[in-house]
């Protein structure tokens, strides 16, 4: 495969700042171009778009059509990503674009991730503007979320560089469906990632996401063992599809063996949406059962989400069992870590990225406008 090493910030269309040339693609003998960003390897003729919708073939190369464009910006609690062991209590400036490289029938953000309307991207911001805005709002990090940032790789990496120059961290909320070469640059730029491990069967991935499980597992191992990026996992439990105790046991055993027992795992509740509106919502008992299985199999930090469950949101010391961080929804209620991130009661370190004091953003959600309304 020949990878085209076009500089990331080169813009082939001076009339449209949202269009940039991309790096990971190659030409095929039949005149098409193949996108090599993710395992889909979309093959396109000029004028065609990939499944993600935002990467397209033009003039014999692959371009990104949404650089600097967003469906909106919001300052959130970091726990909403969800990240429980990365700067707890802090504010994060969150945004997404349009499109996705998976085809999840249960998508909970389908209005953005499945969007084919570029006019939904009403805000725009250059990387330096985003970094400055995060600093101005007191956000300790910027999160690429709502849709998968893998598909706007060039923009995300540039934003991360601008943020690091100001001491702002960056967070990727992703399905981890990315090829080995682009993921190296992508996760080298990220300080934390929450990866959706959507299930632990190929059948689920193929039937309900249009993707495959193996590349995601490969990405998880890469992040955990080859990068400095802090990693947490989320599994959305869908009744009758991926909530069987046997599947959960197999998944947590794989996590323990391949990623380690310190990687936090979030089991979150499904609500009927998109193309799976005829399914029931996930009962709290299913989340609690999954959490119990994971804890019994040795995982140290297991949480429940999208339900009110105070114990399911509490971080406990794996040494003495003391409550280190008590959460009520997205609100921190108590903090028992010393400045080094260890248990105040017994001194056992807690895995994560902590500051001497917790953040105090609380559960607020603050929509903000950074750019201008686009025609």
Structure description:
The protein is globular, with a radius of gyration of 20 Å. The two termini are 39 Å apart. It is α/β, with parallel strands linked by helices and 375 residues long. It has two domains: 1-65, no CATH class; 70-335, TIM Barrel. 23% of the residues lie in helices and 22% in strands. The chain has a nine-stranded mixed β-sheet. A three-stranded antiparallel β-sheet has the order 1-6-5, with no helix packed on it. Helix 2 (127-136) packs across helix 3 and helix 3 (153-164) runs parallel beside helix 4 (180-189). The model is unreliable at 1-10 (pLDDT under 50).
Chart the SSEs and their pairings.
Blueprint (H helix, E strand, L loop, with lengths): L19 E2 L3 E3 L5 E3 L7 E2 L10 E4 L2 E4 L4 E2 L1 E6 L13 E6 L13 H4 L9 E2 L2 H10 L4 E4 L8 H12 L4 E6 L5 H10 L2 E5 L5 H8 L3 H14 L3 E8 L7 H14 L6 E5 L14 H13 L5 E4 L9 E2 L6 E6 L2 E5 L30 E3 L7
Parallel strand pairs: 9-11, 11-12, 12-13, 13-14, 14-15, 15-16
Antiparallel strand pairs: 1-6, 2-3, 3-4, 5-6, 7-10, 8-9, 8-20, 17-18, 18-19
What would you say about this model in short?
The protein is an alpha/beta fold and 375 residues long.
């Amino acid at each position: 495969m020949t990878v085209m090493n076009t500089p990331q910030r080169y813009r082939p269309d001076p009339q449209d700042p949202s269009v940039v040339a991309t790096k990971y693609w190659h030409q095929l003998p039949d005149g098409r171009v193949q996108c090599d960003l993710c395992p889909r390897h979309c093959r396109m003729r000029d004028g065609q778009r990939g499944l993600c919708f935002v990467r397209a073939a033009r003039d014999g190369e692959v371009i990104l059509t949404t650089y600097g464009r967003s469906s909106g910006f919001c300052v959130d609690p970091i726990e909403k990503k969800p990240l429980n062991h990365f700067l707890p209590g802090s504010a994060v400036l969150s945004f997404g674009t349009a499109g996705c490289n998976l085809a999840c029938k249960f998508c909970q953000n389908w209005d953005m991730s499945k969007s084919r309307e570029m006019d939904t991207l009403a805000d725009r911001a250059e990387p330096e503007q985003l970094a400055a805005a995060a600093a101005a709002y007191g956000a300790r990090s910027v999160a690429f979320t709502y849709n998968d940032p893998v598909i706007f790789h060039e923009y995300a990496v540039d934003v991360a560089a601008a943020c690091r120059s100001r001491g702002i961290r960056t967070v990727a909320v992703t399905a981890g469906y990315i090829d080995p070469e682009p993921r190296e640059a992508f996760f080298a730029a990220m300080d934390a990632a929450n990866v959706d491990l959507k299930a632990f069967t190929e059948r689920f991935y193929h039937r309900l996401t249009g993707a495959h499980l193996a590349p995601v597992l490969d990405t998880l191992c890469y992040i955990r063992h080859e990068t400095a990026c802090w990693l947490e996992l989320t599994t959305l439990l869908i009744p009758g599809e991926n909530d069987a105790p046997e599947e959960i046991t197999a998944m947590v055993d794989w996590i323990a063996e391949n990623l380690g027992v310190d990687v936090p795992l979030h089991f979150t509740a499904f609500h009927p949406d998109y193309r799976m509106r005829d399914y029931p919502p996930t009962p709290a008992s299913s989340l609690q059962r999954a959490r119990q299985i994971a804890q019994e199999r040795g995982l140290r930090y297991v949480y429940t989400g999208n339900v009110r469950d105070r114990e399911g949101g509490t971080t406990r010391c794996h040494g003495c069992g003391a409550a280190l961080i008590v959460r009520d929804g997205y609100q921190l209620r108590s903090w028992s870590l010393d400045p080094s991130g260890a248990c105040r009661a017994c001194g056992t370190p807690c895995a994560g990225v902590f500051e001497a004091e917790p953040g105090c953003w609380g559960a607020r959600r603050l929509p903000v406008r950074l750019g201008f309304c686009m025609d």
